[in-house]
Structures are given as structure tokens and as C-alpha cells.
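This follows on from our talk about sequence and fold. I would like you to pick a protein and set down its sequence and fold. Go ahead and set the record down below:
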Amino acid sequence: MSNKKIGPIHPGEILREDFMKPVGLSPIKIAKLCGVPRTRIERVVSEITGVTADTALRLGKLFGTTPGFWMNLQARYDLECAAAELEDEIGRIETIDTEAA
């Protein structure tokens, strides 16, 4: 068994692989159904930009999920990217004991 860590998963990958591919939706079709420019969905699906609150509301309605589902995917992605980038710096921060204060 491998202990290989997978990298952060962009919400665009989830949108593309779990929502679009199974039903054959294109970014253009999703954009039309959501009432947004096609470039917005294309950029999310291409993992160039993240999911905004506005987009989360629209995707949630379109796919019968919650806006929070999409925002949580984005937040987790952002945190995992930041943690990887700042790993050494964060590792040097000592935790304080708030119980002793």
C-alpha cells in the first residue's frame, strides 16, 4: 500500500468529473442554465479560478446541492494549498496554552 499523498482537489475537478461528465454537460450549457458568462464556468472547470459565493448559489440550485457544498470544496482547496505553501513557516509557530492564562 502506498502512502503517497494526493494534492488538493480543485472544485472544478469535482464539477467536471462528478457533475458534468456523467450527464454530458458542457461548460457552455451549465453557464446558460445558470445565467452566467461561459468563461466563468470554463475557468472553474479548467481549475484557473475558484468558486465564488455567486457561483456556489447557482451551482447549488442547478445540481440540487447546497451552496455550502461548493463553498466548502473551495475553502478546503484553499486551505490545503496554503498549508502546503506555508508548511515550514507554520511549523515554526508554537502553540500557546490558553488554559494557563
Q: What stands out?
A: Residues 76 and 82 are 10 Å apart (CA to CA). The domain at 11-91 is CATH 1.10.260.40 (434 Repressor (Amino-terminal Domain)). The longest helix spans residues 67-85. The two ends are 45 Å apart (CA to CA).
